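SEVERITY: medium
COMPONENT: batch folding queue
REPORTER: lab tech (J.R.)

DESCRIPTION
The queue accepted two submissions in a row. Attaching both inputs and their returned structure tokens so the on-call engineer can compare them side by side.

ATTACHMENT 1
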Amino acid sequence: MATLRIPTPMRGFTGNQAEVAAPGATVGEVLKNLDARHPGIGGRVFDERGAVRRYVNVFLNDEDIRALNGLDTPVKDADRITLIPAMAGG
């Protein structure tokens, strides 16, 4: 199982846990399993087409998945996925 780091604004879905585990062979599978275990978080991560929302950054072991294979990026048990909502401001 991969470990996911959950940002503070999304922790309401995970019982205020900063880290949770979810199984999956790819980043996409892990994120879908995260939503199955913690209903509602998927709506904050995925858009209506099933793509990662543009204001959410997803990192696999400090690498942006957009620079890898996106949601199809393979995941190993010891991997860490970090969700980071983009900051807005001006």
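ATTACHMENT 2
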Amino acid sequence: MLDEKANLNGKVAVLLGGGFGIGAAASLGLAQTGVDIAIFDKDVAGMAETKAHVEALGRRCVTMVGDVLSVDDVRKFYEMVGQEFDRLDIVVNVAGGVKQRDFLQGTDAEDAEDIRRNFGYVIQSIRLAVPLIERASRGGSIINFTTIEAYRGAAGFSVYAGAKAANANLRRALAVEFGTRNIRINEVTPDTTPSRGNMSALKPDLLKSMEDAPIEDIEASMAMYIPRGAAASPEDLADTVVFLASDLSRSITGINIHVDGGTSAAFGFINWPGGGYCPAPVGESIKKLFPGATV
């Protein structure tokens, strides 16, 4: 009954950035519900592995190697999709990324890349997708990925955060504009997620300190930060994509779903050791965090 209400079997999805990590999980999640897949990614090995898994599920999978930084690559991908399939139902813009750096150290070229990689290609992807969706007059679902950094003051990620935040109002505006076209547009917003892309964004010294930290310390820090106690997995994000792609969400458009274990709800309330939830450590928490401190 749930599969029938979801109404995904036989549909076609494109995933820009669908070859590895969170994107691969979304590709497989959709394929498991009977969706045929087209993947655009620059990770050749990851995309080949994801394609093999999709085909093992009995679904068709076409791929193209390319970079969202390239206007021509994205255009050629959609041309391929139009040739390979007679319908398009689902668009997932999951590609993105950044390297952590102080704002004043950035260059114009780096800023332009951050904006294109995290916002500009999304505009192009949607503009190219809509005519393909409308060929069959069935409507469709567009799902963009942003980040918690779009909703808070993310020092060290300022231009990236601004580009991701731009997706939020694009989503709202297009939800209204596309409403009568029966095309829905929504947004998935993760926070910290154990993925290669998230880890590679960090400064080398910070990444090295995390690699050297005992796993139990990392787990304890996540339990402090995330109200649910554990980070959302790529599969958790994929499940949200499947929901937003399906008819189970047919009246949902223009919204953002935070898949973060509650960090966006907390917005700074941390479960400090020895002190419990508070915006800043107090009392026994200070003693635990700073041995030798007098309170």
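NOTES FROM REPORTER
The mean pLDDT is 90.
No errors were logged for either attachment.
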